[in-house]
Amino acid sequence: MATNTTDPGAGDMVTIVVDKKTFKVKKRTLVEKSEFFAAMFNSGMKETTQNAAVLRNVSAGVFRDLVAFLDTGKLRCEIGAELLTAAAFLQMRDVIEHCIRHVDVTNCIEFLSVAETHYLPELEEAVSKHLAENFLDVISSKTFEHLPKDLIDSVVNRRHAPKRYLFAIGSYDDSYKERSDVPRVSHLFDDVTQQWRTGCELPPSLCTHACGVAVLHNYIFVVGGFSSADCHQMQQAAACYDPITDTWRELPCMNQSRAHFVLVPHQDYLYALGGCMSFPYQGNSVKKLLSSVEAYSLRTRAWVRAASIPMETAQPCGTSCRGHVYTTVVRPTDELLIRYDPEEDIWEDVGVVPYMRFVQCMASWKEKLYLLGLSDLVSGIVRDFQSYDVMARQWTKLHKPITGQYFDGCVVMGTALYLVSSCGTQRCDLKSGEWNCHTLPPFPGSGFAHAQVLHVVVT
């Protein structure tokens, strides 16, 4: 018989038999820390008069660890499903709360199973909260492979706060930190108040000149570009911002340094398309256009090469729609819409864009692509913008062309298409086709505006 005596000098002791092993425990400790034992010893049953009980459904080893925790507040073993199940059965709140504070990627599945079986909603909430706040670590862990799809969907949905904003950052030269016109913060546009407000601060060492920006699972990714506005040196940096925890973290750099490229989120990948690179040659800085494509996998935390775009191209536009990644390439006489099939790792021709564009951008909503751009860099004349239905394979004009002011990028938020630049913010209702071109304030930052949609809790 194994005996565990917590305090031999104490008079109020009870005998608990577990798996034929006997434990001497303070009665007060059990009654105060376990609703199960409180009910037992206050019931008037024989356990009350004999100060003894036989405990089933719990192993001796686990009971020993639980009693030690009740005395010291520390566990002598790893928190596992068996211990948590026993704590739930014995209704030991201190142990359950301890487990809630120690939820991690390795134990979340076991904890969730116990929480569902024994109805521990606070533990379910803790697991869901942990998975949402640490989703980048979760998705790259072995645990992710065993998470049910409905739980993953629930966690991803949880990462999206009820309120969404346009999130935009501008280009700046990191060497000019004291200039008042250099944006050191991001900006958020509220579609209800129709005003811009200050967002998160950017890492001081991160230059956003000609970088790629994308949002995936409500994380903002900033990748590549130049290290300063002189465009001589490529930036060897990549970072990710989590609006839930308001933190930045470093990411692996691309295998191919590039700037003036487009970063397209699709499923659990980020696709970096085309762009250019700068390298020194005979005392000068030479730019080389790129056709290469690489993808960053959130699962493996690594960049891998993908099929190249058919032509070298700088400042491409791109978006994801209905299982494919879309971009365009400009040929001598026309502009061609192409799409990438991630399953086959191939690019396919979709069709010729009705007219060639400059200063172009692209967005998607449901089954439609929206291709926007100026037709003339000098005059700024704007022709009708085009939409392409990827299911019907048809081109149509937007209902009403906008004014000819310059814009940097476009993004869909809800049922509206926004054009964003320091010249103005313009909005098109995609259901009615009506434009609001003159009443919305411009992006308050300086330089090229990278606009995305981010769900943020702000006060």
Automatic annotation (TrEMBL):
Residues annotated as domain BTB: 12-79
Gene3D superfamilies: 1.25.40.420, Kelch-type beta propeller, Potassium Channel Kv1.1, Chain A
Superkingdom of origin: Eukaryota
Keywords assigned by UniProt, alphabetized: Kelch repeat, Repeat
Keyword Manganese carried by entry: no
PROSITE patterns per the UniProt record, alphabetical: BTB
Pfam family, one: BACK
Identification of the protein by name: Kelch-like protein 42
